[in-house]
Design goal:
Layout: H1 11-28, H2 30-37, H3 42-69, H4 73-100, H5 105-109, H6 115-130, H7 133-155, H8 167-173, H9 176-192, H10 198-224
Bound molecules: 5-(aminomethyl)-2-methylpyrimidin-4-amine.
5-(aminomethyl)-2-methylpyrimidin-4-amine binds next to helix 3, helix 7 and helix 10.
């Protein structure tokens, strides 16, 4: 990428430094700030939850791809766990919010994917269908890492009050378990790219920046309740 610096330390830190200005903007986005202080209108949160349920369906499949590119049994096992946890923990969180909003799981999943969500999940599928294991990890790393950063940021401001409307969401993403997912992905990426050449690193940079941009755009999509224009 134009702004790329020579990679000196670990790959994950290099990518993080590159994407930092994009990540910083997430903390300032009105969807994120109002999610944290509880003032986010329920309509926006409902839109987000429905779209995110569709996103998580696709993310689950990406973990399946990662399993097929793994050579180590321990990696296959962990990707398999991540696949199941995405369904059991994150999708369950969404189902419980949908229930509070009077929606069945089927209704939640019957909404149409918004343009940004479609573009983001298409990007993940494009990388996963032909990419190497480091490329797949790089594509999904912002997804795990940014949410853990957002969760940590809010938890540093104190435990959400018992009547905070988005308390369960905040507690899920500030949990140690969630933090561990990003940490493990970073470790595998760093180990598997120790000897990567400039071309490989440059490909990872593009993938990481693209996913980071889509993470910002996902909040923005939910803030605008984005629809297909025609
Ligand atoms: C769009 C998006 N990005 C990341 C996550 C956290 N797995 C999520 N639930 N949704």
């Amino acid at each position: 990428m134009g702004e790329a610096k020579l990679k000196t330390g670990s790959t994950s830190i290099h990518l993080y430094e590159l994407a930092r200005p994009i990540w910083q903007k997430q903390f300032e986005h009105p969807f994120v700030t109002s999610l944290g202080d509880g003032s986010l209108p329920q309509e926006n949160f409902r839109f987000y939850i429905c779209q995110d349920a569709l996103f998580l369906n696709e993310l689950t499949k990406i973990f399946g791809y990662a399993t097929t590119r793994s050579q180590q049994l321990a990696h296959m096992e962990r990707f398999g766990e991540l696949l199941l946890n995405t369904i059991r923990v994150e999708q369950e969180l969404h189902r419980s919010y949908a229930q509070r909003f009077g929606m069945s799981p089927e209704e939640m999943l019957s909404v149409e994917m918004a343009p940004t969500n479609y573009a983001y999940t298409s990007h993940l599928h494009a990388v996963a269908s032909v990419g190497t294991l480091p490329e797949i990890i790089t594509a999904i790393l912002p997804c795990a890492w940014i949410y853990a950063e957002v969760g940590k940021y809010f938890s540093s401001q104190g435990t959400p009050a018992s009547d905070h409307p988005y308390r369960d969401w905040l507690l899920t993403y500030s949990s140690d378990d969630f933090e561990q997912v990003g940490a493990w992905l970073r470790q595998v990426l760093d180990e598997s790219t120790i000897h990567a050449d400039d071309m490989e690193i440059s490909r990872l940079e593009k993938i990481f920046i693209t996913s980071s941009r889509y993470e910002w755009m996902f909040w923005d999509m939910a803030w605008r309740q984005e629809q297909w224009p025609v």
